[in-house]
Amino acid sequence: MHLHRSFQLWRRLARAEALDVHFDLGLRAFDERDLPRLRQNLVAVSMLPEGGLGSIEYLALSWRLAWLENRGDDALDAARAVVRRFPEDPDGVLELAQILTDLKRLDEAREVLQDGVQKRPDDADLWFELGIVAERLDLEDLRLEAFLVVWRLEHEDEPDYEPWLDDQAMAAVVERTIASMPDAVRGAIGNVSIIIDNYPEQWVVAEGIADPRILGLFDGPILADEQSTDAVLDGPARIYLYRRNIERTCRDAEEAQEQVEITTRHEIGHYLGLDEDALDFMGLG
To answer: For residue 144, is it within any domain?
Structure first.
């Protein structure tokens, strides 16, 4: 009897692992827009006892399949079903809001997110997405409120993690990036301070300059204005690189190094006077 129970437990664990594998493969297929593989993993999830048609994994892959097949209403219905059946899952709220945003139903996305933060006031991801939607709706007060909550939550309860790039490694990437630039650029940025920090300071968010998860920031006079009286009063130009924000967008140290390089080039571009459109055109957006 004891051996039989052990075997049953082993089978349940094996099936649970299989569910995780098929779900993860389905998510990867969605990211790669691979419809045949996504369908295959969706069928596999539906056939597992731990999965099935009513599982969160099945519904989550279902809306992704519908989305890739350009069935927006079906995707929306499946995403709403996730939120309705699994109200404790914040990812479902985020995904539903994203679908509504992509369908340009921004007011509905705002309502979903506001309901989400009311139920989970300590979820920084929900507050952040609410801030993004509010920004697109030009609701400045709501945007500022949401982003300040994110800043507070992420500073009060900063996750304990081992960074891929410590200060020395990150500085080395910055130095290599600058060394690879043309002589004229390297000569122009000699007086620019580059500061590495985990997150932006509160004034960056409070003054509406950027959101709390910005990867980098240029602060100070651009090169063409450095000799003006106002520029002298403002002090030297500064470039901030925010390690924790950069690393949250990456999957490993190699991606983190690449993002540090892109962010460094981006902020140097601002110092040289390039706007966001020009930086996007150069692949530094």
So the answer is: yes
pTM for this predicted structure: 0.83
CATH number for 198? 3.30.2010.20
Query: What pLDDT does residue 86 have?
Result: 93
266 closest CA partner among 202, 181, 183, 187: 181
* Shared-domain flag, residues 23 and 130: yes
Distance CA 285, CA 279 (A): 5
Here the contacts of 71-80 (C-beta below 8 Å, separation 24 or greater) are: 72/99, 72/103, 75/99, 76/100, 76/103
Residue with tokens 């390690």, as numbered in its chain: 243
Domain boundary (123, 156, 189) is at: 156
CA–CA separation, 74 vs 67, rounded Å?
Answer: 8
b/e map of 251-276 (b: 16 or more CB within 10 Å)?
eeeeebbebbbbbbbbbbbbbbebee
Q: What are phi and psi of 95, to 5 degrees?
A: -70, -40
Residue 279 pLDDT class (50, 70, 90 cuts): low
CA–CA distance, 261 with 77 (Å, rounded to integer): 41
Q: What is the pLDDT of residue 156?
A: 79
Burial label for 143, CB within 10 Å (0-12, 13-18, 19+), is buried
Coil, strand or helix: which one is 53? coil
Same domain? 190 vs 245: yes
